[in-house]
Amino acid sequence: MSDVAVPAGRHWTHVGVWIVRGLLALVFLGAGGVKLFGLPMMLEEFHHIGLGQWFRYLTGSLEIIGAILLLLPRKAGLGALLLICIMIGAMITHLFVIGGSPVPAIVLLALNALVAYSEREEIASLAKAF
Length: 130
Hints:
Distance between the termini: 41 Å
Low-confidence stretches: 1-6
Structural class: mainly alpha
Number of helices: 6
């Protein structure tokens, strides 16, 4: 019989990261869906950015892809990295182009960074593959 067990703190950390991943997936599925659906607010916001509506479609699609990757155990780190890049772009856009508060993007970036950190071994193995 083996006495090897996962320490209680590590178990709760794992559960906590899964909860964060699930919540982030819900947020980004919603945000990406709103962009793809073309709510008037999103149409106006992306018009103000000045890159055209193709950029709204690209951003919404990438957010949905990132959300799906967050839910896949072996791809969560990749999803978090993708969403971190999108949130960096969102912060820059809010600060220098459209105005408004960058705080939601900063919070989402931080939560994705937490997921990426927890999946750092997976990310390292993906990096070695290239």
